[in-house]
Amino acid sequence: MDGGFAPGEQRGGPRSVARVLELMGRLASAPEGLTLAALAGALDAPKTSLLGLLRGLAAEGYAVQQEARWRLGPEAVGLARAILAAAGDGELVSTARPVLERLAEQMGETAMLAVLAPDRRAMVYADKVESRTALRFAATVGDARPIHCTASGRVMLAFLPPPWPAEFLRGARLPAYSPTSVTDRRALRRIVAETRAQGFAVTLGETTEGVAGIAAPVFGARGEVVAALMLAGPIARVEPRIPLLSRRVCEAAGQISRRLGHRPN
């Protein structure tokens, strides 16, 4: 087949469209990138077919290849922003923005709002206000991060209703992103229980070495968790201030929740 497409996957065909969406979903859930072999195994598809699709995505800026790994490209980030806005996160972002700005200014660290991706395989940054310090955590709106070893992801595991949290903890892949990433399911379940009990999550260098994250849940008018508010910065600066920062993050998340109409019993 011309261009490496398998039968039934000609450019523009229904199966080709479905495969592209599957492909982008897999890349979105793997910020570290995936090899062609890993993608072929995950999607149960021929490498030649996927390579043709990946090259097409790369030509339009929706995918990039670095060191034999494929990742989402800058155009995919823009598409993610548009999808978030269309899904109703525009109100969430506009409501949270002043709180993010104030939190980043007062605490001197980067403040972010993260939401669960539609396929529930990753966390996605919906908005951010970076610290003004020279040494800071830099993030891009639309970036995807793993669920199991991020503070924002653990907040979702702790506060979203069943059955998804239990299903994730039972069957999701838990790859290591750093030497301190928690990949043991029992240990992760304990951490999620602690997060639920204390109302916030803390990670120290689990996704990016040297970076600490503190997150708390943001609730909507119906009492459902809709996002996680997070502060991130160098471990050396954040760890000594965890009691203060966690308190401020919880307060700020509560402010956003109230502005969204949440009234806890």
Overall CATH class of the largest domain: Alpha Beta
Radius of gyration: 19 Å
Give the termini separation: 62 Å
Number of DSSP strand runs:
8
Share of residues in strands: 15-25%
Please tell me the total number of domains. Answer: 2
Tell the overall outline. Answer: globular
As for the CATH topology of the largest domain, it is Beta-Lactamase
What is the spatial order of strands in the main beta sheet?
5-4-3-8-7-6
* Helix coverage percent: 40-55%
- In terms of per-residue confidence, which ranges show pLDDT below 50 for 5 or more consecutive residues? 1-12
Mean pLDDT: 87
Largest sheet: 6 strands, antiparallel
CATH superfamily (homologous) name of the largest domain: GAF domain
Explained architecture:
There is one protein chain. By secondary structure, the protein is of the alpha+beta class. The protein has 2 domains: 2-72, Winged helix-like DNA-binding domain superfamily/Winged helix DNA-binding domain (Arc Repressor Mutant, subunit A, Orthogonal Bundle), CATH 1.10.10; 88-259, GAF domain (Beta-Lactamase, 2-Layer Sandwich). It is 46% helix and 18% strand. It is built from 9 helices and 8 strands. It has helices at 14-28, 36-43, 47-59, 74-107, 151-159, 164-171, 185-198, 235-238, 242-259; strands at residues 63-66, 69-72, 110-116, 123-129, 144-145, 201-204, 211-219, 225-234. The strands form 2 sheets. It has a 6-stranded antiparallel beta sheet with strand order 5-4-3-8-7-6, with helices on both faces. The chain has a two-stranded antiparallel ribbon with strand order 1-2. β1 (63-66) and β2 form a beta hairpin. α4 packs across α9. The longest helix is centred in the middle third of the chain and has 34 residues, at 74-107. The protein starts with 13 loop residues before the first helix and ends in a 6-residue tail after the last helix. The relative contact order is 0.11. Residues 14-74 form the HTH iclR-type domain. Residues 75-262 form the IclR-ED domain.
